[in-house]
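User: structure tokens for Methyltransferase domain-containing protein, please.
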Amino acid sequence: MIFDDAKIGRVKGFLDSEEAVTLYETALEAGKKGPCLEVGSYCGKSAVYLGTACKENDTVLFSIDHHRGSEEQQKGEQYFDPELYDDREQCVDTFRFFRKTLTNFELTDVVVPIVCKSSLAAKTWSTPLSLVFIDGGHSFEAAFNDYNCWARHIRPGGYLVIHDIFPNPEEGGQAPYQVYQYALASGLFKPMGMTKTLGVLKKLACDEMPVSIEETCLHNSPRDFL
Ligand SMILES: C[S@@+](CC[C@H](N)C(=O)[O-])C[C@H]1O[C@@H](n2cnc3c(N)ncnc32)[C@H](O)[C@@H]1O
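Assistant: Done. Predicted tokens:
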């Protein structure tokens, strides 16, 4: 698939173009085995890449966002965008932008928008997922909660992709990096490489045993791990 960079460039978002290609290629590989899911739809940039891969595999992308913006996207914060603020409702509303993106990229029959908190969507979830992309809230609590809610639904051999991984604290917030490290320490995933700040992990297949059960159970709480 060749993407129209100029068209995608008009979609608000934070995904770098090289990261986007990795996301697309990973979803294309993963999606042969079932649906993909992302936490953090925002205005739909990542959904264009994931959704296009899902379309090619004739599967679906579940895209979760309460569409009220993360902490850092609120009024007065670093990533606040006044165009996304609904004056009447007095809050951020990215859903109308997200819908427009799906329409513009002919993805309305591929992407299933889920408009609520990630934890609520996860509450009774039971569909195995071939790929989970975590790009929601970037506080430790939010990022770890997303991992905790969704990593267990990734099928063996499926992928966990995490955005905004900054090993150097001077370059960015540490929560996604810590979640990435935590996933690795679980013994359930192997690293498949980094593209800029995008980390790809593959869940081990059933016959790929972790080194030891002790290793897997070593870090039974994220706070212990830190
Ligand atoms: C960094 S943006 C996502 C960017 C998007 N993936 C892209 O490529 O443009 C993070 C999004 O996560 C959403 N979000 C934050 N915490 C959330 C939560 N607990 N449940 C659902 N969505 C959440 C915010 O509303 C925001 O739109």
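User: Anything notable?

Assistant: The radius of gyration is 17 Å.
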